[in-house]
């Protein structure tokens, strides 16, 4: 017995050693941070530090050991939260559709979109809404794809605003490294297409709503992330590298700072994670999503300080990770949006399902997001628009690269009912909100 135990212990140790990265000592990790007087999160972001879910009251830094030493020398108190990478026993699928234990590659998403459209012609319209940066340059790349899922009726799911059914749009993986977001969209597509005629509530939803999904808004970025299947690359932005040479995985334009609403050149240089691009709407991915939303939603809002018309329909969610937050407009300023009370009220209803608190503006941490997708849609069209920073922000399912099993244990159960609720609320988002299911 003792010998068997020793062998097992050895095997366990061997596994642990094999699963350890060869360069563990230089690996980035997540840290909490407490700043000395005179140093702000905004300053560190401008210096190029990678601080995620900075809207939260608990900003988290991703840093290498060298960066940690430099910050500690400046008086920053850092607490290690955890490793960036989780061990995976199964990395890439042989057919190239998944990586890192089950997450879908760009090809995996595209194959899935084509399959559900072919299998459910009475429920699904699949659209090519524009090109990725690489495709626009003739360097390979991808189409940006959108699905409209609904019990199709004449004139329904068209690329215009004449459809009778209110629309809910779920938008994911605009930040490529936020792996969980694309998987939530993937599961939402499967839930909707597999439930028609079986689940009464979801059948009613498909009968009365158009459920639009952009499962992967930044496919070139996803290619970079998935290029290292067992240790995904930290690529957040698209892959437009024309603004200058940058260290690995730091080139590109932040597509969530590139919209045509309140775009701000002062969000960082070409190698910073929040580089907004050379000008507003410079990127083809931005034009693709704005083009879709512009077509399918009526404009019910005037200038930046005008409220939306009370009869506005539709709800838009853009998924990000990681945190535990629902962000409501505006995100570029602490000046309240004209519909702020109603936007927050709907946000809180969704938060009843996710247990994420709702914040607006800088969330109290001095960090704004000018040029973001959600501000653009609300600010220019009046449609209630939200960012979900899907959590958790600590524990074994935290981080950009949680184990794939966290989808089943945490992310999907926490978010799917909020998606259903958002779709239900799309009929009258500024009116009487649906009662909780
Ligand atoms: Zn993000």
Automatic annotation (TrEMBL):
Cofactor(s) listed in the protein's UniProt record: Zn(2+)
Zinc among keywords: yes
InterPro entries: Peptidase_M14 (IPR000834)
Signal peptide positions on this chain: 1-26
Keyword annotations from UniProtKB, A to Z: Carboxypeptidase, Hydrolase, Metal-binding, Metalloprotease, Protease, Signal, Zinc
Active site residues according to the UniProt entry: 389
Enzyme class: hydrolase
Catalytic function, reaction form: Releases a C-terminal residue, which may be hydrophobic or positively charged
SUPFAM superfamilies reported for this sequence: Zn-dependent exopeptidases
Pfam families given in the database record: Peptidase_M14
GO CC terms of this entry: extracellular space
Residue span(s) of domain Peptidase M14: 102-426
UniProt similarity note: Belongs to the peptidase M14 family.
Free-text function comment from the UniProt entry: Carboxypeptidase that possesses the specificities of both mammalian Cpase A and B. Thus shows broad substrate specificity, being able to cleave Cbz-Gly-Leu, Cbz-Gly-Val, Cbz-Gly-Phe, Cbz-Gly-Lys and Bz-Gly-Arg in vitro.
This protein's name: Zinc carboxypeptidase
């Amino acid at each position: 017995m003792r010998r068997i135990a020793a062998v097992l212990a050895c095997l366990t140790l061997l596994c642990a050693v094999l699963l350890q990265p060869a360069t563990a000592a230089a690996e980035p990790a997540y840290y909490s941070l407490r700043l000395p007087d005179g140093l702000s999160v905004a300053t560190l972001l401008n210096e190029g530090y990678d601080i995620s879910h900075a809207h939260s009251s608990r900003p988290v830094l991703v840093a290498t050991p060298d960066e940690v030493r430099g910050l500690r020398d400046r008086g920053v108190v850092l607490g290690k939260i955890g490793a960036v990478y989780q061990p995976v026993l199964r990395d890439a699928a042989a057919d190239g559709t998944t990586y890192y234990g089950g997450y879908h590659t760009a090809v995996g998403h595209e194959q899935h979109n084509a399959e559900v459209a072919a299998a459910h012609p009475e429920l699904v319209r699949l659209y090519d809404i524009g090109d990725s940066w690489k495709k626009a340059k003739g360097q390979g790349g991808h189409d940006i794809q959108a699905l409209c899922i609904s019990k199709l009726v004449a004139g329904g799911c068209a690329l215009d605003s004449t459809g009778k059914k209110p629309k809910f749009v779920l938008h994911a993986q605009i930040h490529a490294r936020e792996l969980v977001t694309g998987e939530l969209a993937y599961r939402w597509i499967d839930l909707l297409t597999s439930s028609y005629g079986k689940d009464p509530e979801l059948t009613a939803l498909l009968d009365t709503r158009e459920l639009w999904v952009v499962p992967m808004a930044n496919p070139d970025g996803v290619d970079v992330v998935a290029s290292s299947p067992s240790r995904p690359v930290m690529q957040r932005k698209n892959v437009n590298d024309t603004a200058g040479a940058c260290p690995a995985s730091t080139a590109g334009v932040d597509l969530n700072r590139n919209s045509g609403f309140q775009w701000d050149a002062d969000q960082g240089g070409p190698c910073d994670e929040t580089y907004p691009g050379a000008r507003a709407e410079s990127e083809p991915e931005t034009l693709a999503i704005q083009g879709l939303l512009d077509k399918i939603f009526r404009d019910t809002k005037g200038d930046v300080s005008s409220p939306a018309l009370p009869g506005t329909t539709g709800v838009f969610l853009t998924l990000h990770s990681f945190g535990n937050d629902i962000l409501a407009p505006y995100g570029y300023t602490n000046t309240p949006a004209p519909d702020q009370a109603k936007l927050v009220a709907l946000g809180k209803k969704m938060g009843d399902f996710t247990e994420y608190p709702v914040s607006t503006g800088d969330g109290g941490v001095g960090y704004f997001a000018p040029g973001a997708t959600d501000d653009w849609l609300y600010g220019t069209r009046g449609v209630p628009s939200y960012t979900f920073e899907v959590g958790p922000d600590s524990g074994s399912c935290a981080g950009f690269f949680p184990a794939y099993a966290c989808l089943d244990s945490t992310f999907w159960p926490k978010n799917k009912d909020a998606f259903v609720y958002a779709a239900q609320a799309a009929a009258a988002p500024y009116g009487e909100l649906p009662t909780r299911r």
